[in-house]
Input
Amino acid sequence: MWRGPVLEKKKGLVNAAKWKVFAIHAKLIALAAQSGWDPNMNPHLHEAIEKAKASNVPNENIERAIKKWTWEDKTGVQLMEVNYEWYGPGWVAIIVSTITDNKNRTASDVRHIFSKFGGNMWEPGSVSFIFSKMWVIYVDLSKYDKEKIEELVLETEATDMLEEANYLKIITEMTDLKKTKDFLESKNIELESAKIDYIYSTAANVTDFEQALKLTKMLDSFEESDDTEAVHCNAIIDEELQTKVYDFIEKNTFKF
Output
C-alpha cells in the first residue's frame, strides 16, 4: 500500500498485520482460480501463487484458497477486481484497488470514505497515469551492511532503490523480479517480502495540517476495509507534520 516515504515510515508498511496480507492473497488466488484451478494451465493463478509466496504466505493458506475453487470444495463466492481513482485532500492522487463479491456495496463504501474526508472522484485514467506498476522487494538493512547491499543491487535488473524505515526498497520492472530475486538470494541476501506497487512519477507535497489530517484518516479507513487490496497515493508529508498529525489523532476523537 503505497503512501509515500513519511507515511510508510510512520505506519510500518512492511510489518503490516499478517492476517491482512494473507487475506488479500487468498482473494487474489481465489479470483485467479475462477478461470481454472490448475496453475500449470492457468498463468494468472500461477502469478497469484508466486505473489503470495513472495509475501511469505504459507503453502497451506495457498492450497486452501485454491481448493475453494475445485469441484471438491467450490464454496467461494464470485469475486471481481475493481479500481477507484480519486483526488484526495491537497490534490493527492489516490488509487484504491479492491477485490469484492459485491461491486455495489464496495463502490458505496469507497464513495462514503472519500466523501467523508473531502475526496473528488475522477474518470478512469485521470489519476492512474501518474503511476507505474512495478515490483518492490524489501531488504531489512538492520541485517546487512547498507553499502554492500547497494553494490549488489547495482548488478541486478533493478531500476531504482531507496531507503525507508530501515528497509531498502528495490524497484524492478514487472518482468525483472525473478532475475533480481535469484541474484540477491544467490548472494545469501534474505528478502523480507516482495509485492506489486504503483510507483508515482509526480509527488504531491502536503504541507497543511488539516489536509494531512484528513488524508491520513482517509488512508487508514481504506486500509481497514475488508474489500481493500491496496491503496496507492503520491503524498509526501514532512516527518514533523506527520508526527503532529498522529499525535493529534491519538489525543482526540476524530470526527467530520
Q: What stands out?
A: Residues 30 and 136 are 23 Å apart (CA to CA). The chain has nine helices and ten strands. The beta strands are 80-88, 92-100, 120-121, 131-140, 160-164, 167-172, 193-200, 204-206, 228-233, 235-237. The chain has two domains: 1-11+80-256, 18-67.
